[in-house]
Amino acid sequence: MRISVFVPEYGVIEAVTPPFRSFHTANEFLTAFGKKPIFEVEYVGLNEYVPANNGEYTIKTDRLLKDVTETDLLIIPPTFGDTTKGIQANAEAIPYFKQLHQKGSSLASLCIGAFLLAETGLLNGKKCSTHWAHINEFKERYPQVEVEDGAIITEYENIYSSGGASSLWNLILYLIEKFSDRETAVMISKYFALDIGRDSQSQFAIFRGQRNHQDADIHKVQDYVEKHYEDKITIDTLTKLTNAGRRTFERRFKEATNNTPIEYIQRVRIEAAKIFFEASRKNVTEIMFDVGYTDTKAFRDIFKKITGLTPIEYRNKFARVANEG
User: Fold this and answer.
1) Cβ-defined contacts of 94-100 (< 8 Å, 24+)
2) Whole-structure pTM over 0.85, yes or no?
3) 192-216 pLDDT, tens per residue?
4) Which of 54, 80, 155, 161 could join 129 in a cystine, given CB atoms 3.0 to 4.6 angstroms apart?
């Protein structure tokens, strides 16, 4: 099985090398298990030598992309820095991606490599993952693609994508298991000290407040929520800040932030709770009250829905002071 790792112009070296190394290592484990190595792994690119990390590194490709007439799996890593510049620098590659897919090749994007994949139009009407910090930008640029907010891996027919940063390893493990076997994937996860099977990046997301809009009234509401999240906040109170009717306010808020007002309040409160869990010795009940909740079950359910972990699980995993004293 041929695995072609596309080396994007000004790609991210930390995302380009993992799939190449992992599939090579999978061959070594298959051999150790008395099986035949099944992967032929190569670097492909627009040029023979491709700069990475803004020129800090240079990667030599095995073949030019234009010479790749067929491959079983083409992996598309992310570009470094500004996504628009990354797309422009690799625009020549987009038609080749489409041609390979039309010939039966599977495509897999890693992290914000999803932007290059989406440029093909192959994701239109399909689901996709990308880095949580770029979801709003992705939605604006590719409105016909359904972004799986918080998903580590998405698969639609023979198109795959991964979420942010280290999530690319989860997709690599998934693909190794899919195309070889579970035993090899488990060995790879142990060899690289990876957490196999994780299916959500929500626990790593930092809520940024979705302020990439021009609605001054909604900015005012966001300021209010972020300053008074521990208080009882009603929709009527927020509506009065805009001098609009309730239905109009709720529509404008959703259009501006991609959240309903209630969802926004919940996310602000949970973000505050995450910070408390990471940096304080307060127990779950104390933090629950500090961020505006009075119902333990409601707090737990909302926290888990947003982060993928219960409050106790989150504290045990991320608290900087959990093991002190």
Assistant:
1) 94/119, 94/120, 96/65, 96/66, 96/68, 97/122, 98/122, 100/68, 100/70, 100/71, 100/74
2) no
3) 877 655 555 565 555 656 777 889 9
4) 161
